[in-house]
Amino acid sequence: MFSHKTFNQVKFFFFIFFLTIATVQCTYGNTGYLLQPVSGADGVFGTVNIDGITVYRTTGSRGTYQYYMYFRCEQDVRRRTVYLEVTYKDIGYGNIGVQFNSTSEDYKLSTRGYENFVLDTGRDRTAVFELTNADFRNAQNLQSDLRLCCDGSFAMNIISATIYLEPTQLFNEKNNEDWISPYTGPEYIGDNLVDANTLTDKVISGYQGWFRAGGDPSGQGWVHYVHGDFSDLTVEMWPDMSEYSDAEKYPVPGWTYSNGEQACLFSSANKKTVIRHFQWMESYGIDGVAVQRFVSGLNYNHPRESFRIPGYAREAANRTGRTYFIMYDMSGDENVTKIRSDWYYLVDTMKITEDGRYLHHDGKPVVGVFGFFSDRFAASLGNQILDIFQNDGPYQAFVVGSGQWWWRSETDTGWPEVFRRMDAWIPWNVGNYSGSYASTNYWREDKYEMDSSDVLYMPLIYPGFGWDNLQNQLPGTTTKPRLKGKFMWKQFLVAKSIGAEAVYIAMFDEIDEGTAIFKVTNDIPVNHYFLTLEGLPSDFYLLLTGFGTKMINGQVSMPNIMPDFAAQSQPPVPDILLPLYGDAVENPVLISWTQVSHASGITGYELEIDGQVTVETTTEKTIELVEGPHTLRVRAINGLNIKGGFSEAVIFTISTNNLDDIRL
User: Fold this and answer.
1) pTM here?
2) Which of the chain's termini has less CB crowding within 10 Å, N or C?
């Protein structure tokens, strides 16, 4: 990403700032050493005043190299790991990186940094980098020890750079998020807890969780939205970003909506976003998800980042009362050893199957495996994969397999037996059409055959399809229209008519192939072509899926015509701002929550405290409560007189202790 061009032949520099070393003290006792910025060579900068603060702005110099800013450290740093915090004005767009003197090279690039993606918000921000095996010996240009660099054409606007000899609070917060230890956080408090002990009567949606954005906590840049940059898109639909908080929005450089507003996208690496998605599932009555786990992204060392999405999904399911299970996706990688090693690690170390929200069936944890296609590997390998989960012992699981929809006509040696070894089977039907609709004529015979083999048959339902952007095709070339919901609705009707005991939805968040049921928008950016919802509300397919779930589990009968889901559009779920979960507060207590909006307007909010409901017309209320614990939730009412989903419950305590009376 960054150039290692050193320009060691340059022997001059223009000026030096901060001729004497300064130290700063963290609130938790970690001493920091303020670095000296040095201007000259290929790292020329000047000073500007922004909001009353002196800022060092790179100006660059002739050549093809990028902007640099050099620093010297007067503190003795030899052969040790240190931590660099850089405070900067968030102006421009792209990465800030660090190259430093290490024991192995003079311009070693730091590979671990957080909050270092410049997003052009104009705010003051602080990035932190880990510099492993630092060996400051004035080996860079201008006799410096490290330099800041950027991967874009923007000028860096640096306020300060400080070296710490121990991990800083910011580094620990970003680096030590625990996705592996058993979940011990807040649990769901509500009326719609999903039974996690059976797959029967469930409608499960696939959850990719593979979207990354520039500036998100993963530091991976834009993943699954584009190939390289936004001139080569991979997604077919644009998510509705109106409900996401500012902390969940990642701006796309140069992209705007028709009203001129900045276009932003979400990242699955933001925990708040994953929880938001699960809140939608709760609000619309969707049971849970199969969390996709891509075998191609695994290795035998169990890389920490690979546990982010399983960890987030586990927490979100616990906080929203949903259920979930792991589904291995073998696309392009059918490595038995990798799958076995990962599953053992999930069971033994993450203890994921012991989690109360992890789906079980017939007393066994459920695990999904996608990719059983006879043209990809031999039946013998399919048996080895199933052996991982179907042998007796602590790793035994109820296997939900998925693969070719034409499995009944398969004649390759061994494959008919492999298909009938499954505990449940999902024929992968995406892209299988008959006229204007998905092919479903084989489902009844499929179910009959699987019933005779004691295999739970799960038909796959999807709302439509398209990958014009992914395949660089002309708009509409690959699209299978959604027909304003009828394409998906017809599949639900067939699933109900054949007596399907469980259904799989492809997919919750799959905007790459245009199969997403979560909230996407009709108001697309002006910069490119995307599929829309044909003018329907963004929650239309969540409503349809929720109703379909009730049909499958028998809560509602099958109607003669598709309900008008557009007329049932819900308001968004508010977030409680005060008090926070676990707070101890005094009377009178201020309760506040976020304001939400809806096309039909918002007429009020139902505020529920300890089960007692009042209707409020503003987004805050001051109230006196008795001493002790209390439980708080809130939901919005829109102009259609439809109530949205409740916020996550907050438990707080009223205390009579007056902290002002405490004397030291």
Assistant:
1) 0.88
2) C
